[in-house]
Design goal:
The longest helix has 18 residues, at 291-308. A hairpin with a 2-residue loop joins strand 2 and strand 3. The chain has an 8-stranded parallel β-barrel, surrounded by 4 helices. It has a 3-stranded antiparallel beta sheet with strand order 1-2-3, with no helix packed on it. The chain is α/β, with parallel strands linked by helices. Mean pLDDT is 90; it is low at 1-6 and 17-39. The chain is built from 14 helices and 11 strands. It is globular and about 55 Å long. Helix 3 crosses helix 5 and helix 10 crosses helix 11 (312-321).
């Protein structure tokens, strides 16, 4: 089985002409035989991502907490935690955060304690808190990694992190392999249940797998506009069984009725782009094909949404959840400010037929190939 696994990666490397020389003195080990499996249950609401003995069940629609970090409106602690409880009560029980998302980890700690006190054990067993560690590219010693993971454990008030998603800024610094090996050690100690990645490209993902680091997923930007993960990344995912968790899937709210039939070039003719996410994903629209083409996409999505009695954002999320290797997709939550529980839950019963998919693809393919414009997954964070 190990030989077969190595053969699979060898074929991928040959086909893609990827240089997979490990950027460190240590040589890559044989790629392990414990392929990741993705098992779905319920009304396609939950998914279990596995790698060997590591296993984590999450909701396929995740509540993204970047919006707690500032720039989306003032967050009231008590109202935010109340909102988290409403999402969990509605079956949206997976929360995604990071060490640098303002008070996100602290809010989760307050929330999980309220779940322990105020909700039945059945809900507590389902709630998941996924966080990220985004360190500076310094020397990754065991003590440094442990110290930082302990901070998240304390803030989130848990004995073990459900998932630790690791980000690395500078590929020329091979310390990411050291960090991931130390994270794997912490997983073996029980401080982390599953180790994962965020914003890694295909080449580095392959190197990590060849070093037998048991990551279960890679969180990447993925939307109808940004289909980069369905190219190089999806090929490797198909060969190895690794799964994707996606963000930017509703493009900060751009993929919604709010921006349908609007013209940003005319003052006051469109909602203002007044949040970091709207500004970020407007740049993606510009790189992809511009506002006119984006309007054509919104009109197509609106037609599909009206046909099924759902929102544009629900269609946008479902379309990405149906893509190769996608285990879950993120929808950002502005806790205590606005809610989209109904739209999120509608994703689980929506079925897009061939007519829907073909109409969306027809418009999507008119845009530029962002893999050629920007680069592979995560490259937007590493360009000079």
């Amino acid at each position: 089985m190990v030989a077969a696994s190595l053969h699979v990666l060898s074929n991928f490397r040959t086909f893609r002409h990827i240089n997979t020389t490990t950027p460190s003195s240590s040589q890559p080990k044989k790629f392990g035989a414990n392929f990741i499996r993705c098992e779905r249950s319920g009304e396609n609401r939950q998914v279990t991502v596995k790698n060997g003995n590591d296993s984590l069940e999450i909701c396929r629609v995740l509540n993204g907490m970047w919006q707690t970090s500032g720039g989306w409106g003032r967050i009231d602690r008590d109202e935010a935690v109340d909102a988290m409880l409403r999402y969990a009560d509605a079956g949206l029980f997976t929360f995604d955060m990071a060490d640098h998302y303002g008070p996100a980890e602290d809010l989760y700690g307050i929330f999980i304690n309220r779940v322990r006190r105020e909700r039945p054990p059945e809900l507590l067993e389902k709630v998941r808190g996924l966080t990220k560690w985004v360190p500076p590219p310094v020397k990754m010693t065991s003590s440094y990694v442990r110290e930082n993971i302990n901070i998240s454990l304390k803030r989130m008030d848990v004995a073990s992190l459900d998932m630790l998603q690791f980000h690395w800024w500078d590929y020329s610094n091979p310390g990411y392999l050291d960090a991931l090996k130390h994270l794997t050690d912490l997983k073996e100690e029980g401080k982390i249940k599953t180790v994962a990645l965020t914003n890694f490209d295909t080449e580095r993902l392959q190197i990590i797998l060849e070093n037998e680091i048991p990551v279960v997923s890679n969180q990447v930007q993925h939307s109808i506009v940004d289909m980069r993960p369905q190219q190089k990344m999806a090929e490797l995912c198909q060969l190895t069984g690794i799964k994707l968790i996606t963000y930017g899937t509703v493009m900060g709210g751009l993929l919604s009725e709010k921006f349908l039939d609007t013209n940003l070039a005319i003052p006051f003719a469109a909602p203002s782009l007044n949040t970091p996410s709207l500004q970020k994903y407007k740049r993606m629209v510009d790189a992809w094909g511009g506002w006119s083409l984006f309007q054509a996409l919104l009109k197509t999505l609106n037609k599909v949404a009206s046909k099924h009695g759902v929102s544009i954002s629900t269609v946008a999320v479902k379309y990405i959840l149906d893509q190769t290797a996608v285990a879950g997709s993120m929808i950002g939550v502005r806790l205590g400010l606005s809610e989209h529980i109904k739209d999120a839950n509608a994703v689980f019963t929506l079925v897009l037929d061939d007519e829907d998919v073909n109409s969306i693809q027809e418009v999507s393919k008119k845009g530029k190939d962002l893999l050629k414009v920007i680069g592979d997954c995560g490259d937007e964070y590493r360009r000079a």
